[in-house]
Specification:
four-stranded parallel beta sheet; 4 strands
């Protein structure tokens, strides 16, 4: 079983949405039991909080279940998770700093986005609902390609 961690700044917008989309796509592909997922934030701003209501609304509008309580990334996550996906370059650097080195399975989420490979997943927090929909679409494509990557790695 492979353990996947999605990481953003506060763990209430992008990363819990990524976790929910990942779980939804895994279920749709009948891959349950092969992967576990979680999400975390590099900051301690929202520990114990539910995802942003706009992330929840975006997920629900696409039939995706979302349930998470915010938590902070910890260097020991590097030992627990096979893959860590950072939503942007700042969080990518913060993860490396927290762990003291680069985790073998650390990637930017959009390394799996063929149209915008390596770009940041924009933080929709200070914008409107259209920003959350944009993030949902970006994550859906990137996560679908990431799952394809996982399946290739597994064989």
């Amino acid at each position: 079983m492979k353990n996947i961690l999605f990481v953003c700044l506060g763990n209430i917008c992008r990363s819990p949405l990524a976790e929910a989309i990942f779980n939804h796509q895994i279920k749709q592909r009948n891959l349950e039991g092969r992967f576990t997922s979680d999400s975390a934030g590099t900051s301690n701003y929202h520990i114990g909080e539910d995802p942003d209501t706009r992330s929840i609304a975006s997920a629900v509008s696409h039939g995706v279940d979302i349930s998470h309580k915010g938590r902070q990334f910890h260097y020991l996550d590097g030992k627990k998770f096979d893959y860590i996906l950072a939503m942007d370059k700042t969080n990518y650097r913060d993860i490396i700093h927290e762990m003291g080195n680069k985790h073998e399975g650390l990637f930017l989420m959009r390394e799996f986005d063929e149209k915008n490979k390596g770009a940041d997943v924009p933080d929709p927090y200070y914008g409107g609902e259209d920003g959350f929909e944009n993030v949902f679409q970006i994550l859906s494509v990137s996560i679908n390609n990431f799952i394809d990557f996982l399946l290739k790695e597994d064989h």
